[in-house]
Amino acid sequence: MTGDEDELYDGDEDPYALALRPACGPVYLRLAAGHRVRMPVHRWRARPTVADKTVLERCVGLVLDVGCGPGRLCRELLGRGVFALGVDIAPRAVALTSALGGLALCRSVFDRLPAERGWQTLLLIDGIVAPTGRLVVEVDPDDVEELCTARFEDLQGHSGPPFPWARLGRGALRRVAEDLGLSVTDQWTSGQRCFVTLAHGRSFTGRPDVGPP
Questions:
Q1: Which ranges of 29-169 would DSSP assign to H, the alpha helix?
Q2: What would the pLDDT profile of 20-65 be if each residue is shown by its tens digit?
Q3: Which of helix, strand or coil describes residue 167?
Q4: DSSP characters for 11-69?
Q5: Closest Cα to residue 72, out of 107, 40, 46, 99?
Q6: Does the global pTM surpass 0.90?
């Protein structure tokens, strides 16, 4: 890691700074209930996996990657000639995305964003997608609906500040989608990872499971 990259990880005000630090050991998500979940932080900084590519294949038009992290997906889309903009509330995530050649803004999806209602594919979260657009969401493989406060921590006792966290399985996501006037139009698995596409409308086309994660 270069000295410039080192500067991206100074300070502890960013809840994701610990998770985005170049991995020297496992990083966990400590939930308010007390249990912890090991996070796939190595994947966040790596090249897109087979499972990630099944998501990228479904991205059309202008793509907004909400919670982009280090920007591996939006950077891959740019490399494929698909315009993609990352959005993240973590300053270090945005700085790292930009340093590695991607495009990202440091703000909440609930803030004003460029081309509102013009995005054709929205990764993860609804709110500013075009009427004919789609949402591509990774869901929990278990039937879970969990809203809580969490923080990142490592085995050396370092921990970041708390932040809101949610986990939704397919069933919970369907209920949320219905409340938003959206329908599941596609769902698939790749290895142990599960994905759902949401859109305005009721058509559904199931696709077979594919490849490893």
A1: 41-45, 50-56, 72-79, 91-99
A2: 776 557 888 898 888 888 888 888 888 888 989 999 999 989 999 9
A3: strand
A4: SS--TTHHHHSPPSS-EEEEETTS-EEE--HHHHHS---HHHHHHHTT--SSEEEET-T
A5: 46
A6: no
